[in-house]
C-alpha cells in the first residue's frame, strides 16, 4: 500500500495487515489515532482495499485490513480463527483502551464482522476494552446469510450457467450441513442484526447491485432506529456490487465524514495527531 511518508505497514499474518503512523517519526504527537477495522469482501486484493485504507489514513486513522479467502468463507471455523487473531491483536495492543475503534465492512465482510460480534458477546469481561472502544460501524454492499450463495457464485465467475450451478450447490451445502455449518452463519447474522452494543451505523448500498438485498438492509436500519440507535441508510442508483466508492467517490467520502461527525469522531479527523489533515477525496 502506498501510504506516504510517516506511515508503516505491518503484515500480521496472511489475513491481517496493519497500517499505522510511524512512531519513530518525531513529528507524531502523543494523541492516539483511532483504529479502523476494514473487513474486505471475498477475493478483494490489497490494491482494492488500498483505496479505502488510504482514505481513512488521510483522515487520522490507523487501519487494520482483514482479508479472507473463498474456502475460509465456506468453513466458519476458519473465519472464527481469523476473527480470533484480530481480537488477540487488539487485546495485546496497549493502545486499545485509549482510542476509538471503527468498523467498515464490505459485502461478506459483514459476515466476518458478525463472527467477531459473537465472540465479543460470549466473553464480555475478557474483551471489555474492545467493546468499550467500538464507536460505530459502516457497511457497504453488505449481504446477509441468505445472500452468501448468490454473492459467492457471482464473485467466482461471470458465466451465468456456472454461476447458477455454484449457487445451487452452495444452497444444498447449507441445507445438508445446517447443524454444523449453517448455524454459524445464522448466529453471525443474528449478532449483526441484534447490535447488542447499540453502535451507530451507516449502511450504503446500490439499487442496481445484483447481490445485496436493499429490503433487508432498510429493514435492519429501521429496527435499529426503533431502538433509538443512530442508524443511517444511503442508497445509490447505478453501482455494481462493492462499486459505490469507485462510481461515486466524492459522495462516498462525504457520507462517511458526515457520519463520523454525527457520532462525535470529527475531532479525530480534523487533525492528524497535531498535523492538519486536508479534507480531500483524492486517493
List key phrases describing it.
47% helix, alpha/beta, two-stranded antiparallel sheet, disordered C terminus, DUF829_TMEM53, 8-stranded mixed beta sheet, 10 strands
Would you kindly provide a written description of the structure presented here, covering whatever features stand out?
There is one protein chain. The chain has helices at residues 46-58, 70-73, 76-92, 109-122, 128-133, 148-156, 160-176, 178-194, 214-226, 244-247, 249-262, 266-270; strands spanning 7-11, 16-21, 35-39, 62-66, 101-106, 134-140, 201-206, 231-236, 271-272, 275-276. The strands form two sheets. An eight-stranded mixed sheet has the order 1-2-4-3-5-6-7-8, sandwiched between helices. Helices cover 47% and strands 18% of the residues. The protein is built from twelve helices and ten strands. With 283 residues, it is of the alpha/beta class. Residues 271-283 have low confidence and may be disordered.
